[in-house]
Amino acid sequence: MSLSMSKASLPALELSLTALSGVLDKAQEFATAKKVDPSVLLGTRLCPDMFALTRQVQVASDLAKNGMARLAGIEPPRYEDTETTIDQLKARLAKTIAFIKTLDTSKIDGATDREITFPLGPTNKGHMKGDDYLNHFVLPNVYFHLTAAYAILRHCGVSIGKQDFLGAIPMKMT
Q1: Cα(73)–Cα(107) distance, integer angstroms
Q2: d(CA 167, CA 149)
Q3: Which of 74, 86, 158, 168 has the fewest CB within 10 Å, making it most exposed?
């Protein structure tokens, strides 16, 4: 049996976005313990030309919901980028996870050879076959922004490690 596009993506996205929510919990705990205004963490970026933490979380959320909605052949919901607190970012992640759980897996699986058109900036559009879009655009971009968010918080001194990034991997240990 081959691995379907929905099975290769939906559980991984859910796991990763849930892990990011847990990392944000640790960021809140850090801010409280160190008496740091959480907005300082949310506004931190690794270098001047990178997005700050808040935007990294928003973009990871958007890539997951928009990408999977396009593969399912539906219009993705639009989220306003108005989050200013850790709790608001966590709520956005929860809303994204709830949304991707509603998608029709058969539509996602049927998108393998369908052309997906998506915006690339304000004026350009990208065009890819569904399987290429998932494997070479959606998943790598989500992971990039998840990694950037993790790295920003780690750089700020939040006590997080690889397991926090990976989340609750479905495995047995012996």
Answers
A1: 7
A2: 14
A3: 168
Q: In whole numbers, what is the pLDDT of the chain averaged over residues?
A: 96
Per the structure block, which two tokens stand in for 133? Answer: 């879009």
**pLDDT(170) > 70:** yes
* pLDDT number for residue 1: 57
Quote the pTM value.
Answer: 0.95
**143 closest CA partner among 67, 84, 74, 71:** 67
Distance of CA 128 to the CA centre of its chain: 20
| pLDDT, average across residues 116-143 | 96
